[in-house]
Amino acid sequence: MLLDSIHSPADVRALPAGLLPQLCQELREFLVESVARTGGHLASNLGVVELTVAIHRVFDTERDRLVFDVGHQCYVHKILTGRREDFAALRQLDGLSGFPKPRESAHDAFIAGHASNSVSVALGMARARTLAGADYSVLALLGDGALTGGLAYEGLNNAGASGEPLVVILNDNGMSISPNVGAMTSHLTRLRSKPAYYHFKKWYRSLFGAQPMRNPLYRFNHRVKTSLKKTLWPGSTLFEDMGFAYLGPIDGHDLPRLCDVLSWAREQNRPVLVHVKTVKGKGCSFAERNPDMYHGVGPFDRTTGRLKSAGEETFSGVFGKTLSDFARADGRVCAITAAMADGTGLSGFAKSFPERFFDVGIAEGHGVSMAAGLAAQGMLPVFAVYATFLQRGYDMLIHDVSLEGLHVVLGVDRAGLVGADGETHHGCFDALFLSEIPGFTVLCPSNFAELRHMLRQALFEREGPVAVRYPRGGEGVFREDTADQPLVRLREGGDVTLLSYGMQVNHLLAAAELLAEKGIEAEVLKLNRISPLEPETLCAYLGEKKLLAVLEDCFGAGCVGQRAAAILAKAGKAPRQLILKNLGKTFAPEGSVPQLEERLGLDAAGLAAAVREAKADER
User: Would you call 526 a catalytic residue per the annotation?
Assistant: First the structure.
């Protein structure tokens, strides 16, 4: 097997060109077999096999800086940089990350988990290189989906104007860039990507000296050529107007041509954009037919592509179905997503109410502001968004929603720990920053019944901005609907009070059972609303408790436990002992949610152990 001999990019560069098609075939076979066992991002990686091989043939990523956008397409890069044997533990606890991570390898230039930032990061690296007088290339590899985010254009605009030598590779798999059509365009594209064209262009420019643009004849010819090119290649106009040399579109599965074009781009000594067209899921029939389904996928049958775990009802699915029911009854209800219709459960809504469904792309800030505009004109907008991506709309939540007190509803999906995608995707900040924005109501259902109830409250019974936050996956043991009360007692006990919200109440109830076995009677309190926290309610339930333990799967600063303790202290009813079980300032790694909770002490056993230790200290 040829892949067995590839341990570093140097091995890739040493391969005879005739063996590269075999290498690409083996890479695809390995990807399908590996991801079938572990789950992961399949289709995007199958689409960039030749492109990644070409990058490693032309550049040295241990010295040159390759910046991924999002990082979904980094698996081939990881295989070629000595991490193939680690794929058995892909996205698992203490295993290989599904995204680029500099701590894993010198070949990973920058962490990548959120979209549209790669050009900005690459420009910073290019400027640092220039300031230091160093000599290395800088590349940004982004998918065309990243161009739906405004940050990408901020980076492109500044990078093009900077004149800094860098290469931006745009992987266009048909998500957002319209194809160029016509036989003449196809012919001229092939002509422009041949080495002979590059050599002629270099020779022609050299005739006019080191600064050809100072020559009137060169400037005249350049204007004529640019006018013709803008007519024949309208797709290049945007990038060239920003200051980039535009190369493409190039067949992203033609490896020799990719190597030629990337070599030419490296020699340009200016900002260059290489437009590469690829097929998402290339080489795997079921991934090519359904690239969205196999973008991020769980373990599946290698032959048929059928998922191994049956689809169970999830919070996202219940949210989408419930919102569709409300939209059927009220024509003001609208749904917004940021390129996550399937993930947020809104595919059914999109089919039933296409005129009231808006996919804004990877543009969460825009999604928040558009929701504000809809609300200002009397609609009932619901923005369904992953908690980790809502962070990108923080300023708009304050400026466009909160200041006006607009009735915007947020469906905050994947709140809390989410598992295999790791530190860039855990939703551990929203409970903190949403609660601190003036006027926001933040509701936390613990099961499907409460999600339905709280979504109705958010839409029809509350005023101002409302967030309903819920986790990834299904519900736990606790199935009662207690949504009518801001705080509810689930269990009596006089030795310690356990407090939490959302799915964490399942751990509280289990911890109470563990403590009871040790003779410690635990009271269990469940918050349904973490903002606003009403002093009179907290004091009525928590006044003068001896020991209070608060469990949360968010970071520590500004958490509910801190805020509740401050309210009680101000009222003169502070607990004698306070246990705050949360992430503190620790970014959680990849791993299943139960594994992470166990390691971080955020499960029933961890909470019970903390209470027993505190009770022992009382003695």
Answer: no
Residue 383, beta-bridge partner list: 336, 410
Q: How far apart are CA 502 and CA 554, in angstroms?
A: 12
Is 469 a known active-site residue? no
Q: Say whether pLDDT at 303 is over 70.
A: yes
Convert 278-311 to b/e letters by CB count within 10 Å (16 or more is b): bbbbbbbebbbeebebbbbbeebeeeebeeeeee
Residues in the chain: 619
pLDDT 10s digits, 394-432: 999 999 999 999 999 999 999 999 999 999 999 999 999
> Which two three-digit tokens encode residue 40?
């992961």
- Based on the residue annotation, tell me whether 202 is a catalytic residue of this protein: no
Catalytic pick among 84, 257, 392, 526:
392
Catalytic residue among 83, 101, 280, 581: 280
Provide the CA 302 distance to its chain's centre, in angstroms: 26
Residue whose token pair is 């209800």: 333
First-to-final CA distance of the chain: 66
CB under 8 A, 24+ apart: contacts of 225-231: none
Helix/strand/coil for 171: strand
Give the Cα separation of 585 and 608 in Å (integer). 22
Which is the catalytic residue, given 50, 364, 523, 552? 364
- pLDDT per residue over 471-507, tens digit each? 999 999 999 999 999 999 999 999 999 999 999 999 9
